[in-house]
Amino acid sequence: MIEYQEVSDQLSIHFESEDLDLLQLGILNSSIHEILNQVAITVLNERNEELQSEGRNKILDYIPQSLSRQDILVRARLLGVKEGSIEFFIQPFLAQVFSEPGAISILHNLVANALWAIGFYGSRVVGTKIMARATPVNMAEPLPATAAKRRIRPRVENLIKHLKDASNGGRIVLRSGDEELIVEFYSSEGKRH
């Protein structure tokens, strides 16, 4: 069994939808997990490139690229669930087999970077409204443009598009520390349930 070590801050997810069902929850959970993993891969790859250009050893020689295997880089453990629409709390953990010195410190902004990516790329999806609140101290640095566009943008866009298609609209509030991201999505015109 793979052991995991805590990284980054906790993430609170509050999800509201007029017709909330298991399909929407599955889409949300799977997509958030995949986005966290892809953000981690992007950040670690960027750091590896910096170290190589300086003639130093990489943080990780091998970074898993697939969620269908047992060696998942980041796991998001469910810490609690509240009644109502649905609210749950998750904590990202890095697989210890990959937690070589430095990897944990590089991923300390994992959740903040994921929130930035969801806000930035989610705003490009038609039928959504994104509102972000963050203190300047905690504002995440943008991820490398090329890698983020290739790895993260399609996953964020798919998350919101799938949630829109599976509902009559809804709202997700993502919180971590002083940062808050509100994603509202609206059903396609003419779609009725």
Structural commentary:
This protein is α+β, with helices and mostly antiparallel strands and 193 residues long. The protein has one domain (4-186). Helix content is 36%, strand content 26%. Strands 1, 2, 3, 4, 5, 6 and 7 form a 7-stranded antiparallel beta sheet that branches. The longest helix is centred in the N-terminal third of the chain and has 32 residues, at 22-53. It is globular, with a radius of gyration of 17 Å. The protein starts with a strand and ends in a 7-residue tail after the last strand. The model has no long low-confidence stretch (mean pLDDT 80).
Summarize the structure.
By secondary structure, this protein is an alpha+beta fold.
Distance between the termini: 44 Å
What's the total helix number? 5
Largest sheet: 7 strands, antiparallel
Q: Name the quaternary structure.
A: single chain
Helix content: 25-40%
Strand content: 25-35%
What are the salient characteristics of this protein?
globular, 193 residues
